[in-house]
Amino acid sequence: MSKITRRKAIYLGSTALAATVAAKTLAQPPTLKDYASKKGLIYGSAGAYSKLSQDQEFADRFIQECAILTPENDLKWKHIHPQPNQYNFSRGDWLLKFAQHHRLKMRGHTLVWHSALPNWVKETVNSQTAEATLRDHINTVAGHYRGKIHSWDVVNEAILVENEHPLGLRKTPWFEWLGEDYIELAFRAAAEADPNALLFYNDYGLDYDNNYEEKRRNAVLKLLERLKAKGTPIHGLGLQAHLSGANTRFNAEKLRQFLAYVASLDLKIMVTELDVADQRLPYDHLERDQRVADVYEMYLSTVLDEPNVIGVVTWGLSDRYTWLSGFRPREDKKPVRVLPLDQELKPKLAWESMVKVFQSDSFVLTKPPLIPRSRFLSSISEIA
Predict the structure, then answer these.
(1) Looking at the annotation, which residues are catalytic?
(2) What is this structure's pTM?
(3) What pLDDT sits at residue 225?
């Protein structure tokens, strides 16, 4: 075969290969990340090293659907800082390489939390050593991933109104040792360690229209106001949004007003841990899936009316792997159906509802007028 013929054959072969790849790419149906991206939003999911590294089918689907990855547990204290002078970055580093290789962003979850602490913290730390311990952890962990993390959940779940603290603060070990200042300290340390990351305060129970969650919204808003007044480097609020398919006490306008107040503090907002429990819903798959999907649509339609919302992360992508199987199981012992994809990694009605909201033209492009703050707070029990 002449050089010209050989070159022509190579050219035709490479062209055919390119055409095949292009055809496959064009044939790939749009995914959640695609629909979200068209609205200027980031969609992603929590994922664990143990699942993404061992279940290739799941990992492939994760890459298709998601633009951002939140490690479920692998960056929490007891996994990454198991002993006073020992850090274990192996799982976190694997997840970061996975994300980078597949062009996903990665969130950091979480630097400061009262839960998932190794025993050595409670056994050896005291009020004299707490600040140094906290700074060392944040500097080491956030510093290790400096410039590689989209956003950190710096402080997680610092509010617990049942404690009857005047400001609604949870009496965590860090609070007992350092007082409320531990929260500001954590954000300043995180900003020094990873100055390009977005820094979030993350909490649950901010979604429904009942007295308890109104108190929590009030306490969170006051915390954010205090932090901003001190010039704390905080960039956003994370809404965990662990919802229930059986809870109907939802007031869209109240939630919109709360988010508008948060946005007025020049803070971004992310839905960080979205899922919809089905433990009190009927067994019938069609009815159950519809009820769960309705909650996804109702909630996201409301939250995404706020222009400062930048992304949506579900706490899991598929019913194959969800914490709700153990923490909120069904009484009939049947598998839960709580996430966008089923156990076979196929889209459910929840997936379709999310797509519907992402495609919707009903997003409010300008912020609604705020109800006067005094009137907004008059309808809820004051904490301070």
Answers:
(1) 157, 273
(2) 0.89
(3) 98
